[in-house]
Amino acid sequence: MTARCMQGYRLLVALLFLNVLAWTLAWFCFGGNGTLLASALLAWVFGLRHAMDADHIVAIDLVTRKLMVSGRSPLGVGFFFSLGHSSVVCLAVFLLGVLPTHDWLERWHLVGGSVGSAVSIAFLFLMAAYNVYAAWRQWHALMYKTDIPDTLSGGVMARLFAPVFRLIGRSWQMYPLGFLFGLGFDTATEVGLLGLAAAQSAQGLGVLGILMFPLLFTAGMSAIDTLDAVLMIRAYGWSAQTQTRRQIYNLVITGVSALAAIGVGVTEYVAGWGEDGVTGSAVVQIASRLTEHFPLLGSVILVVFMALWAGAFMWDKTVARRETGMEPMPHTRG
Fold first, then answer.
1. pLDDT of 331
2. Chain-centre distance of CA 4, in angstroms?
3. Which phi and psi (to 5°) does residue 70 adopt?
4. Are 313 and 238 in contact, with CB atoms under 8 Å apart?
5. What angle do CA 322, 323, 325 make, to 5 degrees?
6. What is the C-alpha separation between 317 and 310, in angstroms, rounded?
7. Over the stretch 42-54, which tens digit does the pLDDT of each residue have?
8. DSSP for 169-190?
9. Beta carbons within 10 angstroms of residue 236's beta carbon
10. Residues 162, 152: contact at Cβ < 8 Å?
11. Taking a C-beta distance cutoff of 8 angstroms, is the pair 220, 86 a contact?
12. What's the sign of the alpha-carbon dihedral 260, 262, 268, 273?
């Protein structure tokens, strides 16, 4: 078993422990109260569901691939992204519990939503542009039978994308990105969690009890986001048996990654027009509906990646068996 696999198992075990610890704390904090525990379960499910948002899936996918290309471990990409995102939620819930009025929440939503959306869209477009460039390099290598490394080196385009390539060089740098992504509170899961915390605060639940909800939200989201990164490491790390098949696989999965980033970025951008009052366009309405179902869209994107990985694996094994079967049998005398 490789060192990377061992690290992956340890991280997943640690996340399992975090979820068990969060539920244990919730049980003791709520004293076995069935109503509060049901609300706690809802908060945990919110975290699981929010981790499947399309922007989470695509951001984790893009950075995982980028770190693997640069030879660095991307194992903590999903974990640190979810921690950054959850930090915003924990801060907001804490303020809900200690501040007498909630007038600040609407202002936070307006300002934070603008900042979070701008960061999310800009990041997705920049990383999509890099992936388009990487896909073009891989296509060039495939057409001209060369083995061009999937790194930036030389040329005008390489110098243009070098700042993007250096944008995140370590897994922990996903924490501030996740924090910025989470500033808006514009998803159903985040709004639902805030409403849940506000309702329990109004019924007299203390600050410690209210913070159990974002803790469970964090535990659920970090588990799924980390699992997503582990799956993408396996998908990107798999290598076909021949150089040609390996290049085809890398070209396809890089192209799909670029298309997913562009699609999610465009959807967020167009949906933002609806928030500015441009609601008459059918395109805007479709984009708004898609953002309302981002977990479903993220699930589809993840399934596509896994299907590509599984399909490429089976195709490679099938072709390899055929090539082996075509070898001439050794001549034997009767």
1. 46
2. 20
3. -85, 5
4. yes
5. 60
6. 11
7. 989 989 998 998 8
8. -SGGGHHHHHHHHGGG--SHHH
9. 23
10. yes
11. no
12. negative
First to last CA, the chain: 46
CA separation (Å) from 334 to 10, 273, 329, 331? 58, 81, 14, 10
3-state helix, strand, coil in the chain (%, to 5): 80, 0, 20
How far apart are the C-alpha atoms of 28 and 243, rounded to whole Å?
57
Sign of the dihedral defined by the CA atoms of residues 56, 57, 58, 62, in that order = positive
Coil vs helix vs strand at 148: coil
- State both tokens at 71: 């030879």
Cβ atoms within 10 A of the Cβ of 320, count?
Answer: 14
**Which two tokens mark 206?**
């203390």
In whole angstroms, give the CA distance from residue 178 to residue 226.
13
Q: Does 99 or 186 have the greater pLDDT score?
A: 99
How many angstroms separate the CA atoms of 2 and 226, rounded? 19
Residue among 321, 327, 137, 308 at smallest CA distance from 241: 321
pLDDT at res. 161: 55
Place of tokens 């495939």: 142
- State the DSSP H helix or E strand holding residue 214, giving kind and residue range, or none if neither: helix 207-237
Look at residue 101 and give its three-state secondary structure: coil
Counting every residue written for the chain, the total comes to 334
Under a CB-based contact definition with an 8 Å cutoff, are residues 257 and 244 in contact?
A: no
| Identity at 321, one-letter amino acid code | R
Mean of all residue pLDDT scores within the chain: 81
Asked if residues 268 and 120 have their Cβ atoms less than 8 Å apart, the reply is yes
Token pair for residue 252?
A: 């396809």
